[in-house]
Amino acid sequence: MVKISFLGSCREIGRSGILVESKSGSKCLLDYGIGFNNDNRLPLQTDISNLKAIALTHSHIDHSGALPFIYKTCKVPLFTNSISLEITELLIRDMIRISKFPYPFGFRELDYLKQHTYFLENGIRQRIDDNFYLTFIDAGHIPGSVSILLEVDNKRLFYSGDINTQKTNLITSANYLDVPQLDAVIIESTYALKEHPPRKLLEDKFVERVINVTENGGTVLIPAFGVARSQEALLILEKYNYSGKIFIDGLARKVSNIYLNHPKFIKDIKAFRRIIKRTHFIKKRKDRIPVKKSSGVIISPSGMLKGGAAIDYIEPILNDPNSAIYLVGYQVEGSPGRGLLDNGIFEFQETNNKKDIFKNLQIEAKCDYDYFDFSSHADSIHLYEYIENLNFQNKNCNNIFCIHGDNKSTTTLASELVKNGYNSVAPEIGEIYQL
Ligand SMILES: [Zn+2]
Ligand SMILES: [Zn+2]
């Protein structure tokens, strides 16, 4: 009997963690991320004795952020790839440094994690114990992202991680043709209830609006997630031969440098090098002053305007009818970005006790603002298509666990799949299933 324990990302997004146990009691942990709610930052604590390995799907902190906690007590191999390790380290260091939440681990545990990391190529079957193997398969979500195939006691379990089945400018799409016949699937449900607009039309509209603003002397602020979305925005501007000035700041700048050093994970590294070559990297705070007065595009985290360098640029842009703020990622309810889209007012409060800085902004936007849905997750149509393309060893044993989505998305996806003849549930945190 193979046991699957769901430790997080159940009917929520955040703190991904799945523990798989063989009949002999050997265990493998799939992802170990942090949550975004202060009461539930870590995945559910459970017995991790006899843990043989950890496998990481990708660097986003909802999948990787709590990994150092494991290395407080346990020195097991972590399987990932070079780009995911480097971005994970950058994100966790940043998280520990700026977060007000007292994480129960620090830089020392992060160093232990690095010492125990092994790089695994996609498609290579890695033994972690007797009759216990793991294989990475391209997930198409961000550079380096993988889905994980586990073979335990002759059962095959497939964990999608975060997936995108549509190619973007930055990376190729998820590869599900290499997935063998399965006994169970754990699938993300982020956009199980939503359809993304056609990519080409969205890119056309986005670039047209950017050109309109900058040709009239305005500035476009693109508050983008530092990992992947900022670089996707750059590549869209490259594809359309955007000729104005481009500035990149904050975490987006650091991640871009890491991408340059890992060309095999980038779909068209030449295009990426071309756009990076003519992008101005803003390295110091004082370098932002002339940028604020210059017409062009500024790409900078944070993606939901919760903080980061974007806040430093935003005031004059909000007050300028010739400028614009174009959000390119999902805006969570209650975030300053969502407030701007819904009410036309940017509200932001931040206290930095260390530097004794207090920032309190409430500005009605005079500039243009909009949201362009450049998602890196499969939408409802593509999730169903993905599932249809997976094959099960036994038609009566087609288990699908729906996680990584809010309550409605995970439970609706599971009940739709049941209607289509699958054995599907949206597990709740702490639930254990057997195969
Ligand atoms: Zn992700
Ligand atoms: Zn995720």
Q: Would you write up a description of this structure?
A:
- The structure is a single chain.
- The protein folds into two domains: 3-194 and 376-434, Ribonuclease Z/Hydroxyacylglutathione hydrolase-like (Metallo-beta-lactamase, Chain A); 199-371, 3-Layer(aba) Sandwich (Rossmann fold).
- Helices cover 29% and strands 24% of the residues.
- The chain is built from 13 helices and 22 strands.
- The protein has helices at residues 61-64, 67-70, 82-98, 107-115, 199-215, 229-239, 251-260, 269-277, 288-293, 309-318, 336-343, 380-388, 407-419, and strands spanning 3-8, 17-21, 27-32, 51-55, 78-80, 117-119, 126-129, 132-138, 146-152, 155-159, 184-188, 219-223, 246-248, 280-281, 296-300, 324-327, 345-352, 357-364, 368-371, 399-403, 423-425, 432-434.
- It starts with a strand and ends with a strand.
- It binds zinc ion (2 copies).
